[in-house]
Amino acid sequence: MELVEGALSGDRRAIARLITRIENDGDDARADLAQLYPYTGQAHIIGVTGAPGTGKSTLVNELAQAYRAADHRVGVIAVDPTSPFSGGAILGDRIRMRDLAGDPGIFVRSMATRGSLGGLARATADAIKVLDATGFDVIIVETVGAGQSEVEIAQTAHTVVVVEAPGLGDDVQAIKAGILEIADVFAVNKADREGADRTAAALEMMLDLGYAAPSQKVMHHGRLTEVASGNTAHHPAGDETATEDNWRPPVVKTIALRGDGIPELMQAIADHRRYLESTNELARRNRTRLANELERILRDELMIRLLDQVDQASLARLMERVVAREIDPYTAARQLMTGDNHHD
Ligand SMILES: Nc1nc2c(ncn2[C@@H]2O[C@H](COP(=O)(O)OP(=O)(O)OP(=O)(O)O)[C@@H](O)[C@H]2O)c(=O)[nH]1
Ligand SMILES: [Mg+2]
Predict the structure, then answer these.
(1) Exposure winner among 136, 166, 289, 323, fewest CB in 10 A?
(2) Is the dihedral of CA 283, 151, 142, 14 positive or negative?
(3) How far apart are CA 229 and CA 285, in angstroms?
(4) Ligand nearest to the CA of 59
């Protein structure tokens, strides 16, 4: 609890220790998060994703400094910095220097994959809460585009910047990973390289063809999400039309190494924020995200409770039978859940 008070008063060591607790997923962290929660919901959360080596970290470095220069307090979270390309160590050398120098307006943190991807997504979402609650009004989250994780950031971030670079392949990298759908803004980085115009044109063409759907369409809608969006108490039916999507992701060329295009990128992000606010989409995204989070927590808790009740000997026995193809996994699971597991 002292840690929470310290963090709320801006003590960066307290903030860092809180995030470490969260990574370790202790019960202490839950109590801390409960205390911090009322203070969250202020920050603009920007996700930056894209294929390895496209220049995300360099871009995040420039963006963070530019936001700082505009008097924002900036939190930077690098998720899964285990990329074979850069090792993540170069994330924001310059912002990290400011961070280390004790600029209270910058906080940089790397989140490592420990165990499951799901665990990482949870820890990241909670680390964002800590920074949000402690007054960082712009939070930039970098993840390497490797599949499922991008969709998870899309659920965490308000604005998703997908970074492309020319010459990594013969065409736009994002197609493979399916990250076009989650982009709110495209940055074609390394615009000093040949082919940047072609990459930008390819993206525009795909947008013309309607390939890049608005990100909320790929959000995973669970049961609770449907319940939540069915609750129109605070959202009169008329709002439905207001949330109709007409945002076309802008394509911005950048040269992160030189800081070129950063003001334009910030402008595109600000435009997207304004769009979210003016269409009520911001509230809708927040609601969807929180419903998804609650559902995930419930699922985890129920799972733990159920597993506690399962008789370990029966589990081991059934497991062997599944392996031996004597029984299929569905039937085995049902038998375990109903306690009806003495059929040998
Ligand atoms: N020519 C050129 N190189 C750049 C530019 N931006 C970044 N780079 C270089 O591209 C390489 C990768 O940059 P990073 O910022 O580490 O890229 P990343 O996307 O964060 O990489 P991972 O985190 O490993 O996926 C580095 O050598 C950068 O110096 C740019 O605008 N132009
Ligand atoms: Mg990086």
Answers:
(1) 323
(2) positive
(3) 10
(4) 1
Cα dihedral sign, 150-139-22-113: positive
Is the full-model pTM beyond 0.90? no
Least distant ligand from the CA of 168: 1
Q: Look at the block and give the residue holding tokens 């990973």.
A: 177
**CA 249/CA 206 separation, integer angstroms:** 11
Tallying the residues shown for the chain, one arrives at: 344
For the CA of 50, the closest atom of ligand 1 is 19
Per residue in 209-256, pLDDT tens?
A: 776 555 444 444 455 555 555 444 444 444 444 445 689 999 999 999
Q: Report the alpha-carbon distance of residue 300 to residue 285 in Å, rounded.
A: 22
Ligand 1: residue of 91, 257, 260 to mutate (most ligand atoms within 8 A of CB) is 257
Ligand 1 touching residue 145 (CB < 6 A): no
Tens-place pLDDT, residues 31-58: 999 999 999 999 999 999 888 888 998 9
CA 75 to chain CA mean position, Å? 14
Identify the three-state secondary structure at position 50. strand
Are the CB atoms for 130 and 7 separated by under 8 Å? yes
Exposed e or buried b per residue across 285-301, where buried means at least 16 C-beta atoms within 10 angstroms of its C-beta: bebbbebbbebbeeeee
The DSSP line for 87-108 is TTTTTTHHHHHHHHTT-TTEEE
Say if ligand 1 is within 6 A of residue 189 CB.
yes
Which domains does the chain possess?
35-212+249-278 (3.40.50.300), 310-344 (no CATH)
- Give the number of the ligand closest to the Cα of residue 144: 1
Residue 130 has which token pair?
């800590």
- Cβ neighbours of residue 241 closer than 8 Å, sequence gap 6 or more: none
Question: How far apart are the CA of 237 and the centre of ligand 1, in A?
Answer: 46
